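Shipment paperwork, digital attachment
Item: protein structure file
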Amino acid sequence: MSVAVVGSLTADTSYAQHIRRQIERVVIGLSQPAALYKNWDIQASLGGPILRDKLWFFGNYRDFGSHDDILGMWGNLNAGNPNAWNYVADPNLKARNAVSRTVTALRLTSQVTPRNKVSFFFDNQLACDGSAMTQDADSCRTRGADWVASGTTGVAPEAASGAQGTAGGAFGYADSWQRVIQGTWSAPVTSRLLLEAGASTYISKWGWMEQPGAILNLNQVQEQAAQSGVFGNGTPWSSASPSSKRRSAARPYPSRTCGTSKRN
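Attachment content:
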């Protein structure tokens, strides 16, 4: 019997994180420096004989992921309000990236007879990107009381609302999985001839997914006008004129999508 366990965990408590935040706040002038909230990778495996000289198994489990800040993006106080077209940051709801993967695998090998050996393999991978927009929605990741895993630096959380498909990070929402199932057989006929046969299948759930709790009764809009402003440290910025970026925010940052939910 063999056993192996490996793991790592990083949280937003390290001294290095504190120093980096101070540099971003003082030198660069960011009012809300980026943060790594947590990062983890845990793996365990177990293998050995089930029936002596007849049946063996090997199982593997791995869970890994991360939560990190979306720089300069908060929830939108005007989300869902059809009478307000501007983005107003909600200081009580921070936007973040949140991704995780859970992988389980099992292999069974049996020496059925001295000449016949069969093997079975099953691999299951679960993926969860982003979170629900509301705390009571049924999803692979529940939204926090003070954070939501949705949006980007240029897209407000409610405007992403699953419209970005299965892109990595919180750009969209994805509750997906993929599975591999394999079976093989082998039997030596002579010292020169070996017969082998096998079958394999791959099944997956992918594609566009509606974000649980998304706002569904508003259309997505785009801001076409050129924009300019000044960052917190005094550095000016501007965007191309005109651009096809989504509706801009009423704040000194590049354009943001806001006040919308899903793209048909």
